[in-house]
Design goal:
28% helix; 35% strand; 464 residues; 7-stranded mixed barrel; elongated; 28 strands; 6-stranded antiparallel β-sheet
């Protein structure tokens, strides 16, 4: 818990006439119980050093000056505005530092790509919450020196620009690596393993879930079993044949898949044959009819690639405008460390598509708007909403308890069948957050980026 502060200060370099010195205004010295000629321990992220205190000569209450050796030792960038606070006498902290771990693509001296707008939103939210946020890649960690090459935003002239500097390891890490392929890179695996060992609960959302793993976790909890479609790990032809004898409609899903890609919808026809549809990047990539389930297995190439699938019973989901839909709920932790629902919307499948993913043409509509049109009356509407609220509150708690990881957000996909029964379709450990919205609430968009920073603040112990 913070004992004194926080106070926003500007950090500047002092003239090179002294070494091992921090210059502090008299008023700040009194506030933080510092004395001219005395010493203080300074902390910035993972860096710590000891400095001698001298009074700041210019009459700027909010300016701190550091001798060049101290500034270099701590890795504090020149001319930044940052919070100064303490948890115990004789120690001063600057920060807190929140590191956003990601694959940073660089072009013409600055980050670029689809995640840049997301990074900017997160850093804006960090700044508003009085945190110092930066982006860094796992390959940019220099373990021997305890520093990273991090990107942050600084005002240069009349606008904010990307700047890269050597920074200390942060106080908290928020994992925003969104590529499964990149995450499997040996160097990334090695550095992430070290980070997890070092940070433990101060590193949140450290990796992807696979579908079988999630099903196993939820199936262990008696409160969740009734919400799970019948699902098995597809590891033999015999299992698939038995499963398809039990269910006329099934879905095969890659356990490491995302965006609905590679999902196969299989329907047993009246004549005993099987129709199938395979989901591609732009919708249905391939479809046809085969005589045996084994032929569908050969289409996936599992015997060659070793790619693993689950097979899941098909659900007779409710439709909106004759198109099936599910409900995506973004659950996030806030500054109290408690789960909160940030936003929820219905994902309406494109006509003829087998999933409702927005990336392949699905539409997003407010949950209440959709439920009003499919519910018989207000009582049914209220009843379904209560069930959704109950399930969305329970799911994160069960997942967190079962997985043993530090989590700050989850994306939940919930389906409603024709009998108005709720089903857990998927739980996503890396929910994509759009930086802008055309039809929804911009306030909720801002909130979706703010809450991870609030949770980072909570983990850092920065309570103010």
């Amino acid at each position: 818990m913070i004992k004194w502060g926080p106070v926003p200060v500007y950090v500047h370099s002092a003239s090179p006439s002294h070494f091992g010195v921090i210059y502090v205004h008299r008023a700040l010295c009194q506030k933080f119980h510092l004395y001219a000629g005395g010493s203080v321990h300074l902390h910035f992220g993972g860096k710590t050093t000891k400095a001698r205190v001298l009074y700041q000569t210019p009459n700027f209450h909010d300016m701190i000056s550091l001798s060049s050796d101290i500034q270099k030792e701590l890795g504090i960038p020149e001319r930044i505005r940052i919070q100064m606070y303490t948890e115990e006498e004789g120690h001063i902290r600057f920060g807190p530092l929140v590191g956003i771990l990601a694959r940073v693509h660089v072009h013409e001296g600055k980050p670029y790509g689809m995640q840049v707008a997301v990074f900017e939103r997160l850093l804006e939210a960090a700044e508003k919450e009085r945190l110092f946020g930066f982006i860094f890649s796992p390959e940019q960690i220099h373990w021997e020196k305890g520093v990273v090459k991090g990107w942050f935003r600084r005002i240069l002239g009349e606008r904010k620009m990307w700047v890269q500097e050597r920074l200390p390891l942060p106080d908290v890490i928020y994992d925003q690596i969104i590529s499964r392929k990149y995450e499997k890179n040996p160097r990334v695996i090695e550095n992430k393993t070290k980070l997890l060992r070092l940070y433990q609960t101060n590193y949140f959302n450290p990796g992807f879930f696979d579908k079988w793993q999630v099903h196993t976790w939820l199936n262990k909890d008696s409160r969740m079993r009734g919400y799970l479609p019948h699902t098995i790990l597809l590891d033999s032809r015999e299992k698939m044949i038995r499963f398809m004898q039990e269910h006329r409609l099934v879905y095969m899903k890659p356990i490491h898949g995302s965006l609905g890609l590679g999902i196969i919808k299989i329907m047993r026809l009246q004549d005993g044959r099987y129709s199938y549809q395979i989901k591609g990047k732009k919708g249905i990539a391939k479809e046809g009819i085969v005589t045996t389930p084994a032929q569908i297995l050969s289409l996936t190439g599992t015997h060659k690639t070793g790619k693993k699938y689950v097979i899941q019973q098909g659900l007779n989901l409710l439709t909106f405008d004759n198109r099936p839909f599910d409900i995506r709920i973004l659950m996030q932790k806030d500054q109290t460390g408690k789960w909160r629902r940030t936003k929820a919307f219905c994902r309406i499948a494109q006509r003829g598509d087998i999933t409702s993913n927005l990336s392949t043409g699905g539409n997003a509509l407010p949950v209440r708007e959709v439920l009003r049109k499919i519910c018989a009356d207000k009582n049914e509407l209220v009843r379904i909403q209560r069930k959704i609220n109950h399930l969305s509150r329970m799911l994160p708690l069960v997942i967190e308890e079962q997985c043993g990881l530090s989590l700050g957000e989850l994306g939940l996909d919930i389906g409603i069948d024709e009998d108005r029964y709720l089903w857990v379709i998927e739980v996503n450990a890396k929910p994509w957050k759009k930086p802008m919205t055309e039809n929804g609430s911009q306030h909720l968009v801002v909130q979706s980026f703010r809450r991870p920073m609030l949770y980072a603040k909570y983990l850092s112990g920065f309570r103010s």
